[in-house]
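Input record (one chain):
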Amino acid sequence: MSIADGITDPQTDARTGPADGDRGVMAAWRFRQPTVPGAAGRTLADRLLRVRAIPGLVRFGDASYRQIVPPSGLAGAEAAGRRLADALARGERITIHGDYDFDGVAGASILARMIRLLSPGHPLEVVLPDRYTTGYGLSVEGVRAIRETGTDLLVAVDCGITAHEAIDAAVDAGLETLVLDHHTLSTDERGAVHLPAASIVVHPGLPVDGVDRIGDDEICGAAIAFKVAWALGVAHHGSERLPEPAKRELVEATTLAGLGTIADVMPLTGENRGLATLALRHLPRTANPGLRALLVESGHDPVIEAVHEETIAFQLAPRVNALGRFGSPMPALELLCDLADDDAGRARARTLAIEISGVNERRRAEEKRIVEEAIVRAEAEGQLADDHPVIVLASPNWKRGLVGPACAKLVERFGRPVLLAEACDDGLARGSARSIVGYSIHDGMLAAAGHFERFGGHAAAAGFTVRTEGIDGLRRSLVEHARAAMRDSARSMVPTVEIDCRADIAELSRLEALQGLRELAPFGAGHPKPTVLIETVRPIETRWVGGDGNTLQLSFAAEGNRIVKAVWFRAGAHKGEIEAALKRGPIDVVASPDINHWRGRLEPKLMISDLRPSRG
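The corresponding structure, as predicted from the sequence alone:
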């Protein structure tokens, strides 16, 4: 079968391959678009564009600052910039309060760096929360302590939009607050937006001067801080034409904002795509010694290898986030914000990057332990049964900052929502939830609201606090809700792999085809990595590798003596089914095509999502 054949309706044409209900070793398979016109003569990149049909999708090489919406397109950004410029002129003491993840640290860094550039020596402090002592966001005690330091103006970055009580306390203490946030707006019982009592609120969900928004509703905290820093520069200089130092700083701010966009899993379309693309393009030559040190410590050589979104999502961001998962993220603030690009700064950056990587290794080991313990307990307690669609567990040995990523791994493995929590000494269990496509864990929590002390989040992920003795009751309530919801929607607990189009090994062995596909990067939320169906192929080599033998490597022969290598990480849980499929003969494979950089050479590679015995 030719890759040029069109994909037609899977209900009427058997040539289409997977329809809903078809599945491989671990997941159901389906095309993203059930009906796609013929694609004769089109490249792999062209076929992907036709399937995705994302309006205004700009190729990597064509991205520019024209895609970035100015501060005037974000509600409150210009007013916040003017207020900060006024604070600099008056010598008012400013405190920036960020968050403990990459986005929050980057946002705080952007604003602090611009203030220091415009007004060296200005009284400025940056504080970041500690997950285990102060908790997320602003608190009543925290804002009072900030006021006692003599702060005149508090700027909440990547937090504050729902901190009504804390900001009321700030007002009572005579502390003015600006809120720069992107999290969900709170509403009253009538559905009206309920804003905190800050003097200025900058939020992408608010209208601009009473009219519809100009930019995207989903931008990250660092992107908001970037636009306020831009507005501050304009207000401080009294002109849209900024001097070169300020323009260079905004380029660095764009980089941090784009990295925050990737790290915070924002949809990589529209303005977000522009920010992310510009960040990836500029990162190899950044003047920020901390970012350069993180790249090197991640094993990335920007001289010989382009920086891709995976470098940020799987290397840089997890290193910074690991600090906040164990305690204070302040070393990350120093790395991104406080170092000069000189010998001393570069040496300190290397030291910090090594230390942060060490924390990340601890994080990985602890997450692995939590996952392993949770699997054993879930199986022993019957929570993996077909009629038990939710996993709910708590342990005093699981740090609350690590259970979220552990939830995600369990969701990927078992195809059902997962809630994990740390059972704390005060009788409360604090944890995180992750869900599957098609089931809103937030709706489940609303149905079980009586069991929680508090909770918040959205359909895919949430955080919660519950009394430890109430864990079993919570589990029963969530199981009942999930059973009903999945029965009503005919939703199974089988994970789903979505396929963009067909491809064959000959096409995937040609670097020019894969390079054309990379021009449609960055990939992520809203624009995921392409997945292709490769039908009726036989591997010429099969290996299980890794310390625990958990990674599958396959090699396929292509025309012209070319070899295409494929890898499937964390496949060990399905080793028996995989080996049985391989022994039966030809297989169908769902994989993401990519390019491997190895010792200065470029090679095609496939990242496997699933496989099955071929039906051809």
